């Protein structure tokens, strides 16, 4: 058991909380087929660079995003991911 500012924390943050943009970014990479034709190093760099270009959006349960996120906001998030991945690819490909 850990105490942070006198609040008991029984969860493991790395298991219980994650950035929703991680899922969207990975989904887009798969959609582009990059997982099939790029190596693990490239994909890791692509994810890191892309995610650093995006604002964090922390969630506990993915189902919450599925049911409670307005369609307009979901679309906006997907557009941000597309732009971030494009920029990250341009950066990586120009430095090969």
Give an account of the 3D structure.
It contains 6 helices and 4 strands. By secondary structure, it is mainly alpha-helical. The longest helix has 24 residues. Helices cover 67% and strands 10% of the residues. Helix 2 packs across helix 4 and helix 4 packs across helix 6. The mean pLDDT is 87. It is globular. Strands 1-2 form a two-stranded antiparallel sheet. It has a two-stranded antiparallel ribbon with strand order 3-4.
Summarize the structure.
By secondary structure, the protein is mostly helical.
Task: For the structure shown, list the relevant keywords.
96 residues; mainly alpha; two-stranded antiparallel sheet; 6 helices; 67% helix; globular
Low-confidence stretches: none
Radius of gyration: 16 Å
Strand order of the largest sheet: 1-2
Largest sheet: 2 strands, antiparallel
Structural class category: mainly alpha
What's the count of strands? 4
User: So what's the overall shape?
Assistant: globular
H/E element sequence: EEHEHHHEHH
User: Distance between the terminal alpha carbons, to the nearest Å?
Assistant: 47 Å
What quaternary form is this? single chain
Strand content: 5-15%
Overall mean pLDDT: 87
The helix content is 55-70%
Given the structure, what is the number of helices? Answer: 6
């Amino acid at each position: 058991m850990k105490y942070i500012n006198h609040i008991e924390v029984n969860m493991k943050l790395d298991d219980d909380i994650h950035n929703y943009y991680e899922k969207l970014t990975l989904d887009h990479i798969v959609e582009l087929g990059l997982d099939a034709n790029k190596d693990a190093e490239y994909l890791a760099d692509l994810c890191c660079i892309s995610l650093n270009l995006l604002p964090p959006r922390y969630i506990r349960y993915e189902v919450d995003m599925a049911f409670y996120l307005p369609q307009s906001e979901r679309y906006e998030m997907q557009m941000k991911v597309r732009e971030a991945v494009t920029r990250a690819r341009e950066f990586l490909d120009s430095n090969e």
